[in-house]
Design a protein that fits this description.
This protein is an alpha/beta fold. The protein is built from twelve helices and eight strands. The structure holds 1,3-dihydroxyacetonephosphate (13P).
């Protein structure tokens, strides 16, 4: 049985002070929680503060991005080792905002996935179609390309241990979440492909989160789907109480 994983992607929000207050409050709310993996992804500047506040709580810390390079003359970049050193154990890779606004390709995402695994970070690999692609009937083809190229060269064991986030681009920050039928189709399809390409154990182990306008009032319908193993939450994760309500919703699984 896969343990659901619920992650807060804060994007470019929160100072170190705000991060500290949030993680302390969330830590006391989720004290003793089990049966759901809880992850908070602050901006780089607040990683260390958040990780220290999360110590001895069930909260894990993720970075929102990282360089594919180990080290070197890459001004402005942050490596897997640095993220790990700051206390993160997960890293979000290939978020649609990185792909769209910063030109990240599947090939680059794949290099980052390999670099993250080499540093013993758990990658959260984001995939998802744009509205244009959905309207053109190309959703599953886009997911195939992103999953195949993003995970190229990984072993079955590595795939079993990572997290995929299905985030339809048209549902991000729009208040328009995918219907349970749409999420079910995409998640089921990704799981089928993982089985074909990496085998039964990889497909069974890999968690597939849904992301895109997840709120306390729609998490229940999403988490009830057999191939939805949690949520990657943007806007509704910025307030501790609404993120906590989503975590509780995911426990109903
Ligand atoms: P929203 O929850 O704000 O739609 O953002 C989703 C997202 O991009 C999480 O990574």
């Amino acid at each position: 049985m896969r343990i659901p994983v619920v992650a807060a992607n804060w994007k470019m929000f929160k100072t170190t002070h705000e991060a500290l207050a949030y993680v302390r409050e969330l830590g006391s709310l989720v004290k003793g929680f089990s049966g759901v993996e809880i992850v908070v992804a602050p901006p780089f500047t607040a990683l260390l503060t958040a990780a220290e506040a999360a110590r001895n709580t069930p909260i894990g810390i993720a970075a929102q991005n990282m360089s594919a390079e180990k080290e070197g003359a890459f001004t402005g970049e942050v490596s897997a080792t640095m993220i790990k050193d700051a206390g993160a154990t997960y890293v979000i890779l290939g978020h649609s905002e990185r792909r769209k606004l910063f030109g990240e390709t599947d090939e680059l995402v794949n290099r980052k996935v390999h670099a993250a695994l080499a540093a013993e970070l758990v990658p959260i690999v984001c995939v998802g179609e744009t509205l244009e692609e959905r309207d053109a009937g190309r959703t599953l083809e886009v997911l195939d390309r992103q999953v195949r190229d993003g995970l190229a060269g990984l072993s079955a064991e590595q795939v079993a241990g990572l997290i995929i986030a299905y985030e339809p681009v048209w549902a991000i920050g729009t208040g328009r979440n995918a219907t349970p039928e749409q999420a079910d189709e995409a998640h089921r399809h990704i799981r089928t492909r993982l089985r074909e390409w990496f085998g039964e154990a990889a497909a069974d182990g890999c968690r597939i989160q849904y992301g895109g306008s997840v709120k306390p009032d729609n998490i229940g319908a999403l988490i009830a789907l057999p191939d939805v193993d949690g949520a990657l939450v943007g806007g509704a994760s910025l307030q501790v109480n609404s993120f906590f309500d989503i975590i509780r919703g995911a426990l109903a699984r």
